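Handout, tutorial session.
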Amino acid sequence: MSEVQVRTASSDDVEAARALTNRSWLATYAPLIGEETTRDIIKTRHASPLFAEQLANDDNTFLVALRANQIVGHCYAYPKHGTYIERLHVEPDLKGGGIGRAMLEHVEAQHEPVSRIWFEVLKGNDNAVAFYERTGFTFEQQTGLEDGLANVPALIFSKILN
């Protein structure tokens, strides 16, 4: 397999990053919260104008991972009690190939003065939990049902950098 290149996204990358995120969501979340609910959430959380707005904010980190000049991963993070990773998605059939790890390393390098990187993952997303634990994140707490997505609690993980 060719090497992964991680870079800041351009406006030309927004639609490909959004489409990849949607494929990842359907593969990951439809089994947990149902396909209809997943599609409803995608309509609002992954709208093109929202992705474009997130890319335009200089305080945010909006990355794409490329392999053979094709977008195969997307990560979005921003300052919130450290650095909060809102999205980290890899093409479903390429998971386990180092793409997610490369994006995490890029986020960590970009935010090195920040002491904490954290995220939430839906309870039941065992593959993501295992990935984050392998990359040095530790479980902090579980949210209540009302704080999760579609009445599924979220698990909060973090990594202290300094």
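The second record follows below. Compare its token runs with those of the first.
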Amino acid sequence: MSDRPPTPQLVVVTGAAGPLGRAVVAELLARGSDVAAMGRAGDALDEVAAEAGVQPVAADLTDRSAVSAAWKEIDRLGVPTGLVTLAGGFRPTKLADLTPDVLDSMWGSNLASVLWSCQEAAPRMAAAGGGAIVTVGSKTAVTGRAPIAHAVSKAAVVRATELLAEELGPERIRVNCVLPSVIDTPANRAWMSADLAARAVPPGAIATVIAFLLSSDAGPISGARIPVYGDA
């Protein structure tokens, strides 16, 4: 019998209604997984849930109680052995303009949302014999200029990934992090130069890497920070 964690049949994707989230959902469906799409209630989440194999689960991912309640809904769908924590936020604030509101927002949306979801996923995956978690950091978490609150909160996600990989490894749960740079989305194209737009990374390319990290083919990989920068 293989020591690798099982290939996920039910994957929870937070932030599933965003451009990267939709690409990840599409990639997972193409690989035969079912998806629990978590995010704020609204038309965007409903659109994602219109796909066969996708179940919407509405929650404020920064609120521990709300996340706990949402995972009880997921229990009715099955036992998830994959989690992708895409939910997050961005506020382009320099040090001089930093406020408690901005700082709290970045820590809540980028870090707390990851930790609360992992806290719920871990015991379920352990009971199922293992699983895989993929978090989303940022190139700016490890290098280059960036808005301080966003970059520091993403750096915390990278370090949390490493710590969780160590803590959850004995339970046969792998935890890895992808580090995007500029993603080619309609919102980003509104401000990108033509040169940067040509170099930005398509969401589908990142989704392929995430799906690989969830799969049993990535069984030996845990605690890794995977750059998905492209040329951006």
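Points raised in discussion: Residues 96 and 148 are 10 Å apart (CA to CA).
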